[in-house]
Amino acid sequence: MKYRGVLLIAVITVVWQAIVSTNLVSTTFIAAPIEIFFCLVNMFAKGSIWSDISATFWRTLIAFLISAAIGTPLGIAVGYIRKVGYSIELLLDFLRSLPAIALFPLFILFFGIGDESKIAVAAFMGTLVITVAAMQGTKQIKKTRLQLVKKLGLKGGKIFFRFLLPESLPMIFSGYRLAVSFCLILIIVTEISLGGQQGLGARLIDAQMLYNIAELYALIIIMGIIGYLLNNSFIQLEKRVVHWRGN
Amino acid sequence: MTFLQIRNLVKEFQRVEGGQLRVLDNLDLDIRKGEFVTIFGPNGCGKTTLLKIISGFEKPNDGTITIRNSPIERTKSYLVLQSPDDSVFNWMNTIQNIAIALPNKDKEQEISNLLEKIQVGGKTLLEFGSYYPYQLSGSLKQLMVIARAILFNPDLLLLDEPFSSLDFKTAMQMEDNLLQVWKKTKKTVLFVSHNVDEAVYLADKVVVLSNQPTKVKKEITVNLFRPRKQGMKLTAEFQKTKGKVLNCFSEIQ
Fold it and tell me: Is residue A122 domain-resident?
């Protein structure tokens, strides 16, 4: 099945190239695959792209790690203490519905135009996504199971680490996957809106302003690959950690 | 001497359409220490609710339950639920699933010893020690839960139709496994069943419950000698006892 997927992409690329080569469309805003390919080779050969990739990647990863570190225990706690759950749910729903990017101008005032404000926006969204996932995961635990665990003599931290956390882990991992995608999107959006600095988003907006169409496409492809690899590595990680899921 | 004493137990649930639904109505029951009691009753009469109240999972609206004259909260009991999936932890293998019931870390020997004795289909449960629940059949999972219950060493072992999802032959093997373990450990057992053969075969005493609002309809003593053998299900004494249970059951409207 994987081969068919690659084949499909290859076919689309060939058709795209054919359309551009035969001048069926204007090439003002559309780059040919061959051009994009050479642009990509050039970028990596020169090595200039690596610093942008790593800037975007690390910002995304740090934002995600902050999200997971706050969201996981918070979500489990909110789900576990159901009474608190009801009073905090409205707040969580409101914050989650809020377009996180709207906070960016405010965060720039707080944290400046460096990495911190970008990471803060992404982490804000990621934390909420993970909190809600962990909360749902914990809330769906059957009451009988919790009573059983208490009967077996587990208390306090042991209930958290040996029961609530693993029990909610399938849901939490769905949250992680969603959160890492959101973090990447928000990091790139913040990079685009500031420009000038390192990062794929900044480079993208520069390419557009300099009318470097092939590079624009090449960067989009790089971002797509990063997103794909991040998502895929989370799926692999999930298969290992939550090995009981789907069985 | 009475071990478990239930007096005037009342349990009501909120009806969806409003008002109260009385499930247990002034139920009285006495069980002696080391006795194997099965509870037999119509569907929806509150058998599971009764077990959940005794194990402390649910609070009664009224009435008292004491064990050796002290409140049930101070008694170590274990409730084996109908579906093993409600009791197993999917991220733990068989050994870990059982070890969670034991406080000390060095209990592996104890677990191995027990699992070696539990046989199913020519294999011991120990051979499945490193399997995860999703790799096990329903009967093996239920055996694992029962093994956990035994090692937890409760004063009172409660089982809620534990063999109801098993096929005929496995259920019979499980009956014998349970009786073997019971003989060694001398636990007081309260076993809810919806299978009259099983109820009679296992028990010292069959408690027949009425329809809702539920009371004890009748207690029927089983006079078969022990150890029980599956062949006894064909004897006249077994059939006579089974007949008594069914007669009593047919009177329930």
Answer: yes
Q: How many domains does chain A have?
A: 1
Nearest Cα of chain A lies from the Cα of B85 at a distance, in angstroms, of 10
Q: In terms of residue numbers, what domain contains A208?
A: 54-241
Give the residue from chain B lying closest to A143, CA to CA.
Answer: B57
Is the ipTM higher than 0.90? The answer is: no
* CATH number assigned to the domain comprising residue A163: 1.10.3720.10
Cα–Cα dist A158/B29, whole Å? 36
Kindly report the nearest CA distance between residue A88 and chain B, in angstroms.
27
Within a domain: residue A33? no
Residue among A244, A245, A247 with most chain B CBs within 10 A, to mutate: A244
Contact list, B160 vs chain A (CB under 8 Å): none
* pLDDT 10s digits, B190-224: 999 989 999 999 999 999 998 888 889 899 999 99
How far is A171 from A138, CA to CA, in rounded Å? 9
Residue A222 lies in a domain: yes
- Alpha-carbon gap, residue B144 to B112, rounded angstroms: 12
Tokens 């090692």 correspond to B151
pTM value? 0.85
Strand partners, B38: B191, B206
* A105 located within any domain: yes
Contact call for B90 and A163, based on CB within 8 A: no
Contact B91 A145 (CB under 8 A): no
